[in-house]
């Protein structure tokens, strides 16, 4: 599908079943005369039962397949949770579900769905979303309810906002998500209670395919875990640990997915250090790299290994949801692909690799009607009504239109990877 400048039928197969029955009755003795009145006794041959066919069994599939979808930064700004507060029903504090409803069908269609949870959830601290001039985030627990209901089942937490409210808040958030993991059969990773937990490779079996998940962060906004704390976050510069973990994951699982929190914010330029690290990760055994942190959509590519196999890297998925005020922060990516396992050889490869562009929409003057849309459901009319040109605080790139959306997509998503009608 081409980028839109303005804006199958199924066939019903009918199976005919043929029922064949045969009844034979002999009126003469074999080898005797046909003369009427013959005194020879007549011998009748009993009808024979129709032959019954042996039940057929479907042949075993030669390959196993798992459909994976992912999303970038679930960034809960002040105006995001204020929208959820306005949507809450009686007895509720927040309802985030309507903010995500336009993409729910995409997440639900996946066999496994991965989300970068950019903000902690610490119920003993105040809810914050970069309001008041400080880039500190702490989200209400209703965020988790919404994204779990949406269909995500893998949550990565390795990001730069982990210590916004200190080590105790991070520990509380880890325990919160671990409890959710037990309740809803989730996979949670990226921030750990201790070293042993950090070295426990998370593996999720999906349609018979064992998929390992790993997550690493570039920095924690200048904060560091206190020396007397057992908490653990594996950083991108710990390449010896990353290499060991990816190789171990490849031995234990069929496929390896790495969440990489890296890059420079607010730019779509892929830095050389990320290209270098991505190549190392793929050669160590990573099959898929899901980049995040820059709050912008960035390009993606295959990385070949010496043995002829290859992995795929999305350098940055951008924001899943946010209330930022630059147009380049409002177009994101949802990776969408199939992991295929050859049962005979045990080898894994990727098929149908692409991504679905998404748009965060809101209106002026108060970020009302905030919601995330897939490109296929967004319209030029919605683009014309976007509130970013009037948002406060004002960004540096505040113009918004259908052409601007298409330009961001054309610049950052290769044509062969664009899933514009999904």
The number of E-state strands comes to 16
The SS-based structural class is alpha/beta
Broad shape: globular
Helix content: 10-25%
What average pLDDT do the residues reach? 90
Query: What radius of gyration results from the CA coordinates?
Result: 29 Å
**Oligomeric state as shown:** single chain
Explain this structure to me?
The protein is an alpha/beta fold and 422 residues long. The protein contains ten helices and 16 strands. It has helices at 78-87, 97-100, 104-108, 142-150, 166-184, 195-198, 239-252, 272-284, 380-384, 402-412; strands at residues 63-74, 112-116, 128-129, 137-138, 154-156, 187-189, 202-206, 209-217, 255-261, 288-292, 300-304, 310-314, 319-321, 331-342, 348-363, 368-374. Strands 1, 2, 5, 6, 13, 14, 15 and 16 form an eight-stranded mixed β-sheet that branches. A six-stranded mixed β-sheet has the order 7-8-9-10-12-11, covered by helices on one side. The chain has a two-stranded antiparallel ribbon with strand order 3-4. The longest helix is centred in the middle third of the chain and has 19 residues, at 166-184. The protein starts with 62 loop residues before the first strand and ends in a 10-residue tail after the last helix.
């Amino acid at each position: 599908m081409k980028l839109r400048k303005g804006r199958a039928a199924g066939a019903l197969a009918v199976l005919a079943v043929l029922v064949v029955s045969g009844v034979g009755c002999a009126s003469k003795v074999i080898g005797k005369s046909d003369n009427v009145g013959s005194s020879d006794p007549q011998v009748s041959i009993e009808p024979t039962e129709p032959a019954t066919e042996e039940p057929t069994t479907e042949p075993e599939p030669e390959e196993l397949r798992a459909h994976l979808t992912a999303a970038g930064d679930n960034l809960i700004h002040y105006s995001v949770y204020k929208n959820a507060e306005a949507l809450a029903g009686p007895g509720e504090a927040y309802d985030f579900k309507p903010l995500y409803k336009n993409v729910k069908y995409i997440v639900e269609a996946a066999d496994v769905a991965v989300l970068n949870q950019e903000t902690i959830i610490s119920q003993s601290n105040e809810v914050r979303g970069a309001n008041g001039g400080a880039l500190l985030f702490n989200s209400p627990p209703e965020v988790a309810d919404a994204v779990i209901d949406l269909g995500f089942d893998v949550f990565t937490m390795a990001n730069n906002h982990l210590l916004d409210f200190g080590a105790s808040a991070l520990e509380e958030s880890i325990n919160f998500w671990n409890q959710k993991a037990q309740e809803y059969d989730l996979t949670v990773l990226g921030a750990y209670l201790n070293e042993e937990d950090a070295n426990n490779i998370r593996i999720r079996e999906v349609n018979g395919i064992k998929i390992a998940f790993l997550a690493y962060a570039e920095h924690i906004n200048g904060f560091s875990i206190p020396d007397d704390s057992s908490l653990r976050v594996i950083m991108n510069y710990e390449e010896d640990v990353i290499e060991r973990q990816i190789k171990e994951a490849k031995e234990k699982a069929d496929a390896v997915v790495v969440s990489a929190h890296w890059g420079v914010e607010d730019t779509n330029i892929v830095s050389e250090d990320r290209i270098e690290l991505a190549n190392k990760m793929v050669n160590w055994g990573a099959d898929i790299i899901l980049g995040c942190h820059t709050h912008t959509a960035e390009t993606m590519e295959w990385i070949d290994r010496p043995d002829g196999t290859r992995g795929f890297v999305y350098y940055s998925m951008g924001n899943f949801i946010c209330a930022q005020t630059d147009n380049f922060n409002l177009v994101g990516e949802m990776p969408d692909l199939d992991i295929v396992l050859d049962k005979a050889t045990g080898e894994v490869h990727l098929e149908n690799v692409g991504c679905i562009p998404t748009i965060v929409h809101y209106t002026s003057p108060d970020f009302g009607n905030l919601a995330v849309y897939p490109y296929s459901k967004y319209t030029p009319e919605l683009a014309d009504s976007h509130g970013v040109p009037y948002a406060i605080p004002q960004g540096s790139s505040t113009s918004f239109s259908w052409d601007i959306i298409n330009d961001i997509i054309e610049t950052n998503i290769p044509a062969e990877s664009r899933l514009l009608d999904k």
